[in-house]
Amino acid sequence: MAKLPDKDCTGCEACASVCPEGAITPRPDHEGFLRPVIDEGICTECGLCVERCPVLDEKRGSTDVENPKVYAAWHNDPKIRGASTSGGAFSAFALEILGRGGVVFGAAFDEEFRVCHREVTDEDGLASLRGSKYIQSHVGNTFKQAKHRLEQGKDVLFSGTSCQIAGLQAYLGTQYERLFTVDLICHGTPSPELWRLYLDAMERKYRSKVVGVSLRDKRIRWQTPTMVISFANGSEWAAPLTDSPFQVGFWNGLTLRPSCYACRFKRLPYPADITLGDFWAVELIHPKLERDAGISLVFVNSEKGKKLFEAVSGSLFTKESDLEFVKDHSHLLHSASVPPGREDFFAGLREMPFEEFARRKLKTRGALLRLAAKVRRSLLCCMKSLR
Ligand SMILES: Cc1cc2nc3c(=O)[nH]c(=O)nc-3n(C[C@H](O)[C@H](O)[C@H](O)COP(=O)(O)OP(=O)(O)OC[C@H]3O[C@@H](n4cnc5c(N)ncnc54)[C@H](O)[C@@H]3O)c2cc1C
Question: Phi/psi of residue 162, each to 5°?
Fold first, then answer.
């Protein structure tokens, strides 16, 4: 019988969701990424998991537009725009679906700050989905829940990375008129275990539980993001992304899931009806747009996506842009490269306390400045002794 993919597995959990016997459980591998583990005692070898795996056989959804239209956009409500990572376009689509009595699925922090997909049925709940969590999200039962809602005749908006949307489409195996999907331009997803180790280290440092996290706060401005962690004792850690070892590992591509280095969904159109990202370099093409509060880059990939986009025209500022220009967006069509030393990195992760590990392997801006100062001092000493 054909096997589920190994290195190429994206962790979308379609196989676990579709297994009629419940024989597949996602479990963390040695790098902390969830992978399907089959209980051979329960498995009947029906082959459905392999048949529905989106990596082995990609089932396209309703994305039928070869050259998607692209827009710069932001939510007209400054509070929503401010609380979102880019321009808050996601919230416009989500609020439209909630307004129709529908439900929205997306990634949220749970009470332990693990990232998990969840269903949201009202505006208050939507706040938990807002903002990028740069950690791979656990899909859990949400594909099954979404199917149940569709069968109840509800409108459903499912958001996630492109591999998760392809996983949902493969799991469903059929098109639903009331299903709307949103995916993201994605640099890749870091290991949930690394995230836990990082938070544990921060809790040790501040001697207090983490009670709030924003991985990209706009308190300075969108172009100069800040990471913010709040603690139960009232302390707050807020710093540029380059000061967090977790962010350093993410942005230099060291901590991503192996499948992210050859992401098969990085081609146009993306699998979802709507694709969202940050409109970096927007000033080169639309110099008059106000950037500091954040600008979303929106791709409309299907007829269904077009109708949803038109439906939110009252709440979203939009300006049509140029597909050829945005094709240069660094993570749109190209995967991150595997940085040298990635394998050693994960092999060494549990060999020492995280604080020590981060000092050696995830050099923050502060650490690099200290290193540069040390090298300068040594050079000056050498020059003096040569005189
Ligand atoms: C792991 C990751 C990598 C990204 N890399 C890039 C990039 O390289 N370039 C770029 O332009 N944009 C990237 N983005 C997208 C960008 O950060 C914004 O999420 C996107 O522009 C939407 O912003 P918004 O303001 O419209 O809404 P927001 O409210 O900020 O976005 C919330 C949306 O993001 C989803 N989401 C949040 N975290 C996760 C997660 N861990 N897994 C799945 N879905 C999640 C929510 O379900 C919701 O749909 C990335 C996002 C993630 C999660």
Answer: -60, -35
At 255, give phi and psi (nearest 5°).
-110, 15
Same domain, 86 and 208: no
314 and 213, same structural domain? no
Is 18 inside any structural domain?
A: no
Residues 218 and 174 in one domain: no
331 within some domain: no
pTM score, whole prediction: 0.95
The pLDDT assigned to 384 comes to 77
User: How many domains does the chain fold into?
Assistant: 2
Separation between Cα atoms, residue 217 and residue 238, nearest integer Å: 9
Residues in contact with ligand 1 (CB, 6 Å cut-off): 84-91, 106-107, 115, 129-135, 137, 159-161, 182, 184-187, 189, 276-278, 296, 331
Ligand 1 atom with the smallest distance to the CA of 159 is: 49
User: For residue 128, is pLDDT > 90?
Assistant: yes
Over the stretch 286-312, which tens digit does the pLDDT of each residue have? Answer: 999 999 999 999 999 999 999 999 999
Q: Are 9 and 36 in contact (CB under 8 A)?
A: yes
Q: Using the predicted structure, report yes or no on whether residue 153 has a pLDDT greater than 80.
A: yes
The two structure tokens encoding residue 57: 């056989």
- CA separation for the pair 270, 300 (Å, rounded): 10
Assign 367 a pLDDT band (cuts: 50, 70, 90).
confident
Which of 91, 184, 223 is the pocket-test mutation for ligand 1 (most atoms within 8 Å of CB)? 184
Q: Tell me, yes or no, whether 121 and 228 share the same domain.
A: no
User: Based on the domain organization, do 143 and 95 belong to the same domain?
Assistant: yes
Query: Quick check: helix, strand or coil at residue 195?
Result: helix
Domain co-membership, 225 together with 137:
no
The pLDDT value given to residue 368:
73
Residue 205 is part of which domain span? 192-254+349-379
Residue 60 has pLDDT above 70, yes or no: no
User: How many whole angstroms separate alpha carbon 255 and alpha carbon 358?
Assistant: 12
The answer to whether residues 217 and 228 touch, using CB atoms and an 8 Å cutoff, is yes
